Prior knowledge:
It is built from 3 helices and no strands.
Amino acid sequence: xxxxxxxxxxxxxxxxxxxxxxxxxxxxxxxxxxxxxxxxxxxxxxxxxxxxxxxxxxxxxxxxxxxxxxxxxxxx
Length: 76
């Protein structure tokens, strides 16, 4: 991504679920020569999203187990 337009960065960040403050801050960092700071913020947001995915997976696993138990009990 060489010299992306600030508007393109902001749109990408919005699409990634970042709030307005984060969008503005990261876009300013990335276009203002503070790439390291911008990347740190992106990595932080990515970790937060991944934590949400893992939490969702735990919930799905619990539901799957419950469905398994209910079906197993019905067969008996």
